[in-house]
TrEMBL record:
SUPFAM superfamilies: Thiamin diphosphate-binding fold (THDP-binding)
Superkingdom, natural source: Bacteria
Protein name: Acetolactate synthase large subunit
EC number(s) from the headed UniProt entry: 2.2.1.6
Organism: Cupriavidus basilensis
Amino acid sequence: MPNTDRNQGSHATQGNNGQSEMNGAESLVKTLLACGVDTCFANPGTSEMHFVAALDRIPGMRCVLGLFEGVVTGAADGYARMADKPAATLLHCGPGLANGLANLHNARRAQTPVINIVGDQATYHRPFDAPLTADTEGWARPVSVWTRTATDAASVGADAATAVQAACAAPGGVASLILPSDVCWDAGGKVGVPLAPLPVPKVSPDAVQQAARLLRSGQPTLIVLAGTALREVPLADAHRIAAATDARLITPMSNARVSRGRGRFNVDRVPYSGDVARDKLAGIRNVILVGAPPPVTFFAYPGKSPRPYPEDAEIHVLARPEQDLAEALARLADELGAPSVSVPASVAPRGIAKGAVTSEAVAQTLTALLPEQAIVVEESVSFGRAFYPGTVHAAPHDWLQLTGGAIGDGLPLATGAAVAAPGRRVVALQADGSGMYTLQSLWTMAREKLDVTVVILANRKYAILLGELAGVGANPGKTALDMLDIGNPDLDWVQLANGMGVEAARAEDMERFAELFGMANGRRGPFVIELVI
């Protein structure tokens, strides 16, 4: 029989010298702060109450409440993408973790450092199989680079320090620390010593020389850039290489963060459509990967290749995701003797678009009105096909995307990015169907007074799936089409936003959209524009 006569007292006990001892929860908070983790996105429950109480006694941790765990995990992802350091989550037991798994999957695909803290049943309570008992560690492991369940209060601090080191090890990932409630309330906690960051491996001279030989061969070569290779300086080196060798540059369709806009080098993306991608990449003989996996189509289709590049093209690796991508590109450019190149002259914005709402018209207006150093979070799914190529000449900005295909990440990403980068306007380009997955993000934006302009692309259907029906050769009837229609009844995003405490307005033409977009970006706090398309 498990021992149930455990000390469940207050946050501290008196030691032999009369001084209070820390409990496990206090050692966790102090260790996270010592490791530079000062922001926590939380949806706590009973098992996490000692952590919550510790926040009152230990200053320095900003705790942001989310009303759904998918908001919490997605916001932690967005925060780290912009802060270049992790935030913590605080989730309640296995089911709370399960609610947040989709956006932890997206964070894993984005290679985002996240300290994923999950409360759990007390160690001695677990054998009784209470209702919330679950395989919490088993659920966490597939989305995590590191997973551990703390066994006693004295180990919590060291475990937390190890979690931070694991999450921050290149290229970055989710480190999940599961804390049974008794290890949080028990005395004997110790502050973990921050661990030195693990060194980022550099590519070998052979890898650089092999890539240089391929590029000098004259064969059509594609360089696929991902991860930190998409920041401003590495992109400049990639363009040096391309200019010197006639290589083509491209990124995967979805990326964690891209530096772009006027005064920066542009890079194209692999198209979503496999047929369009295969046409675009026809004739390629060599594919050189820089922090990227070999390109693959998003889905399989009957009788079609999963590769968007020619079947006979050869794959080569300059740098793996965990290696120093910027240093690899700089060394390759120097190996080739590639001179510096200037950013192509920007085309003056054409001004705001007028008339009917189209993807191209929205991109034109974004180019004209996007604030300097904005952060664009795109989960536009089908309607936004023109947004990325059409905003090349917008003001300098960072572009964040849904990386793992699990929709419902856009609004949480925008929330976290705004917390990480105060003073920069966040613009969320959000499809209406996927926006409903994490609508509660708007409440957090209002509560935290975050500077986010949300543009809801309201076509009232899962339009991307209409194309997928055709792609797999289906012949849909009324029942099938009804499953893709979210317009019966119509969602009213103005009322939904107002109900979450966010001001909102509707636009049905480009003139009204431009008016609202300019107004929203010039004020403090969040604002929602429902753009009817």
